[in-house]
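Re: duplicated header lines in exported structure tokens

Our pipeline writes sequence and tokens for each protein into one text file. With two proteins the header for the second block appears twice in some exports. Here is an export where it did not happen, for reference. First protein block:
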Amino acid sequence: MLNTGWKRLMFALFILFFLSSAYAQITVNAVRTFSQSTYLPGQSIDVTLAIEITGMPTAVIINETIPKTWQITSSNLPINSFIAPSTYKWLQFNATGVSSVEIKYSVSIPEDATGDQSFTGLVEYLENETMITTTIGGQTTITLPPSGFGISPQSLHFGTTDTSATVTLSNLGGSSINWTSSIATDDGITGWLRVSPNSGTIAAGSNATATVQITRSLLTTGSHTGSITFTANTSPETSIVLRVSAIAGSPSPVSNFTASALFNSILLSWENPSSFTGTIIFRKNVPLSWDDKPVNGTSYTIGSRLPGGAICVFKDTVNQDTLFIDDTAVETSYYRIFSFDDGSAPSYYPLYSEKYSDSPSTGIIPLPIEVIWEGDDLFTETQVYNDPYGYNLLAKFNTSGVSEADPKVYVGYVPPDYIPPKLTSVTGFKNTYLLSSNFTLNPGDTVDIRIPVRLDELATEETSVTLYKTHVYHWPGANNNWEDITSQVIERNLSQMYITVRLNGNQLKGNDYFSLGIPQPSVGSGGGCFIATAAYGTPFAKEINVLRKFRDQKLLKTKIGSAFVKFYYRHSPPIASFIKDKPVLRAFVRGILKPIVWLCGKFVV
């Protein structure tokens, strides 16, 4: 009796459990995801429908509508039916006890597809003999990628032998694009660089190729560079520049290489050739030897050493720098600079210029830090520096402060051999001062620089006359040259012998040299006594004044005299340049000129 009752109880519980499960709430949630966020015409994408089920529906029907003219090419579950124009149906019977259904299908995209494309879908399931419908969520819209255009590689180095290379043009967007090209050369030689084809059309997501060729017979010895600009009608328009270089013989060398002293560092400056391919500098603490030269085919990096032991301290193939501060130099240093062409496609053979430039043969030594101005007082007080000869350089910053946390200024006297190259058209630069700062002034800020005028900078004329003829020069100006800033002079003090100039804040570059000089008179304006000027060291010497008067009052009055003056103007500048820095020669020439000046003085008033 008990056993039968127990069986009946168990049967009743089973029926209750079955009924409660059958009539429990049923939910179905469906989410769509794309394999990629954009599409490309002519290609395909993958789509996933993830369907989560709670409860026990007796059937689940999935309806998926894709963009018109698109087609499903494969599916992990069999497709039950297709309803035109673009709806596909999957039937999942016996869904009771199933917690999830995942459908993965691939869809092909027609070549003419464009714009945004939409996917919609519904899931239907039976609950208590009632058909329930729910929308498939998740991603519903897919679009073309943004317009895009690219080339590879973006530079070509033909070295000394190659004549052609291939460039790949890529359409990274979702619609076809048209491209064109234009050529420019940096050496003034036309025709040596060309591209074929020079225009074309690229289908969406596709690539095209163009052949770049050079004609070596048109190239002169040295470096040759140019560019091909590829332009595509994307939105917005895209232009990409392909840089091209070729070498005939050896890369063109740099010029005007100089080394100047900074505080605890050395400033190097130079001029790159018009066809820039690369610049590399090596340093040594003893004079450079014959084997301190890079080997063609070898790639050097910062820290690499030449066979002779010189170490690479600078390398540039992109920025076309013409200045470098070597802050690793701690003693007398010697430098050697080369042009080079990098070893990248299509030529993988680095080439270095046969001609090179060295820094001064005596070497160069970083300046010791003599005076440091720092802290808040820097902008509230006038700072004065006493040079080794007892003269003062003054700097006053007209600013309320700067953003740098630890502003400092280093000031010192620079020996003549350690300054940037002097202007050949100016007499002077005997005493130069360096002002080095680690901050940037604000827009509108100024700085007053008071530069002493020393006795060895004065001509033999009246001191007051010379003071007012003296010009003020600042380095670096345009193209890393000395610039004449005399127009910014705000004071000339005769009693204390100084000149004050006011600079705008943006004129300070961080390492600034200041010096004085007097421009040499140009031919036709009362000047032109080149050799005499070099011999006496100033265009204002009284002897030169006598020679000028004799030229103007006597020589230019006759045909023979005028011819002599023209001959002198044509041939004397190189002689003057040769003797100007040689004290013994200058004294010798002054001795020769002495009786000539005496005789000329007898014929002029």
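Second protein block, exported in the same file:
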Amino acid sequence: MKRGLLYAVLALGLAACAGAADGQDVEVRPFEEVQASEFVFELDPTNPSRGIFRVDTTEPMICAIVWGEDERLGNFNNSLNMAGTGIIEHDVFLPGAEPGVDYRYVVQGTTADGTLYRSEMGTFVLPEPETSKTNTDDRENLALNATVTSVSSEFSDAFAAENTADGDLATEWSSAGEGDDASITLDLGAPQEVSGFQFLTRSMTDGTAVTETYTVTVDGSETLGPFPAGNSAEPQTTDVTVIGQMFTFDVETSTGGNTGAVEIRILSG
């Protein structure tokens, strides 16, 4: 059993055990009793490597979706907006969900009084993107061989700084709520000729965590920018002419919150 599905089963199992210890049977109620909107599945317009699941509930809930390509499911996601408390508007990223693929899902959650709710198993298919604006720059991305030497903060191990230079749009670095103060330094290992930068911002479904502009400090001295940030769907390339080894990327302006980057690309000269 995969870890996500195991966590989901354990969550319900622990609740059931608690009820049994009190001599009570735990009842799982139909999710539709607290469902205030239709289940919506859409492609993330800023990152085509993931989907978004949305639903509103009639009262604050801790809510999650378990999904996969067959009835074994295997993926477990919830809203990062919860911040440890129940919410009504549930907007959940689905990393790795691909357009055109048939997925099965179950939605489950609990209210403040401990009542458990669970949907029937359903299916969803993400729509194909209207346009494809993936990175078409054929210059070598020097950041793929770089080492992260410092970072202002990391939200968790799952949002580590190294995710900015792994070539994977399904992973990302998130700071711990630093907004305009987030920064990260990449070491190329030796001085290199650089001809451009791309900073692909992460984002949250509530509009926070979007880096709008950033600066780049080369070898601790020359600061370039600010430059406009892009995203996975629409990379923004800034052309420069510089030689350096250590490149510090600082968020200049943002929408606040857990700013960071899906990818940072340092393009060869």
